[in-house]
Amino acid sequence: MTTATSNSHQTLVMQRLASLLTLQQRLRAASDVTAIARILVNDTRHLFEYRVAAFYRQSRILAVSGLPEPVTEAPFTQWLRAVCRHLEKQVSEEPAMVAAEDLPQSLRQDWSSFLPEAGLWLPVKSNTGEWQGGLFLAAVEPWKPEQTSVLAHLAEAAAHAIHALQVRPKVPLTHLKKKKLSIIVAVLIAAAMFIPVPESALAPAEIVAYDMEVVRSPLDGVIGELLVKPNQKVAAGEQLARLDDRSLKARLDVAKQALEIAGAEYRRGQQAATGYREVTTPMPVLKARIAQNAAEVAYLESQLARVDIRAKHDGVVVLNDPDVLKGKPVRLGERLLAVAAPESAEIQFWLPVEESLPLPDQAPVSLFLNVAPDKALSGHVRYINYQAEVSPEGIFAFRGRALLQPEENLPRLGWRGTARISGENVSLFYYLFRRPFAAARQWLGL
Fold first, then answer.
1. Do 132 and 19 share a structural domain?
2. What is the phi/psi pair of residue 96, to 5°?
3. Helices (DSSP H) in 329-422: which residue ranges?
């Protein structure tokens, strides 16, 4: 019987020793003081039983057993903070048994309402004597000396863990070296602000024709037939469209009949004059009527000859929507389509007003097409309008044209992309802060 009791006691001692070592390991692995406080108030139960535990530090209750966060304004928390503040002043180094009789009269009367009889105060101090806090435990049974001894080891491990969190790791650079490095970095940044860089702006762009024949309606009429498609290659003299000629043919038939009638009247007048008969209409009038009708016939025949619209030179048809032209009534000189020479492609860009910048003559332009964003086409500005207008994208911008370099492979007309227009060299400081300064001036009204 005695042997069994001895074995049971040894087993209990070993279990407590293992729990103590586990708790010390967890305290050293904690990430902050609050985590250490929660381990002390909740996991110390693996060593000894108690009802209430609290950790006190810097006039605050950091953790209470059984609660995720202590309620600061609760009556129990305020009373327990006052008790710990009193014990911090009275008990300096060693663990101490605490009862209601050891407290001032103002704190003594609430003990029975909040805590069991046996209290234990464990000062948490590092080996250098620095006070790190206090662990307060309250149990039903009185605390035994061997229990306080084990808990003192636990408090010492907690103090060491808190002290380790407060010690700043050493860095290889001294404070003086850090200061010098900061000054060097600041000087380099300030010097970099004066590096000259080309000022640039981005603008939406499109490939358009530099040399383009605008095909217009040769007379009033209706588009009867459209014979080409957009981007179709045509040769000089090739028919592009045809106007409806039915109205002209009808008018020509009427004019020819009028000419025949006028000729018959003129011949009858000649016969009457030869036979000494009275002529109702003078001969000069009849002759003038013949000339008038002949001019009308010639005019209508020339108009019929112009209903076929042909290209003047080789090129590519520039036309947005062919269905719009079919059957459309047109006036003399109205634009129908265009024939562009493919070897005369150039860049048309729309520089937004807020992106405008002073440009030198023949400012360099780089075009990044949407179909090939990894390659840039080079060119130079030919002109920019002095007055801003609304672009096809609906932005207020300056329209400009730029010629491509002769060695560039000419892209297809109509391709779109983004053009970067480069201006004069400015400082890096001005390049970075030009837009913020402009926005600030507009906002402040300066």
1. yes
2. -140, 135
3. none
Mean per-residue pLDDT over the chain, rounded: 82
Q: What is the pLDDT of residues 166-188, one digit of tens each?
A: 765 555 556 667 778 888 888 88
Range of the domain at 426: 341-444
Nearest-10 Cα torsion for 139, 144, 149, 151? -10
User: In the structure encoding, which two tokens stand for residue 399, read together?
Assistant: 């329209």
Q: How is residue 177 written in tokens?
A: 């070296």
What is the C-alpha to C-alpha distance for residues 222 and 149, in angstroms, rounded to an integer? Answer: 112
337, 367, 384 - which closes a domain? 337
Which residues are CB-neighbours of 86 under 8 A, at least 6 positions away? 103, 104, 107
pLDDT at 335 over 80: yes
Structural domain count, the chain: 3
Angle, helix 33-43 to helix 145-166, in steps of 10 degrees: 160
Please, which pLDDT band fits residue 1 given cuts at 50, 70 and 90? very low
**Residues with Cβ within 8 Å of residue 423, at least 6 apart in sequence:** 198, 199, 200, 201, 357, 358, 359, 360, 363
Distance CA 330, CA 265 (A): 39
**Which contiguous run of DSSP H or E holds residue 297?**
helix 283-305
Which residues touch 253 (CB under 8 Å, ≥6 apart)? none
Output the DSSP codes for 40-65: HHHHGGGTS--SEEEEEETTEEEEET
Q: Is the pTM of the predicted complex or chain greater than 0.85?
A: no
- 353 and 370, same domain (yes or no): yes
* DSSP letters spanning 217-277: -SSSEEEEEE---TT-EE-TT-EEEEE--HHHHHHHHHHHHHHHHHHHHHHHHHHHHHTTP
Residue 345 and residue 319 in one domain: no
Q: Are residues 373 and 242 in the same domain?
A: no
pLDDT digits (tens, 9 = 90+) for 223-244: 888 888 888 888 888 888 888 8
Taking the alpha carbons at both ends of the chain, their separation in whole angstroms is: 99
Beta bridge partners of 64: 54
Mean pLDDT of 5-28: 76
**Which residue is associated with the tokens 């209508």?**
300
Whole-number CA gyration radius for the chain:
52
Residue 364, Ramachandran bin (φ over 0: left; ψ between -120 and 50: alpha; else beta): beta
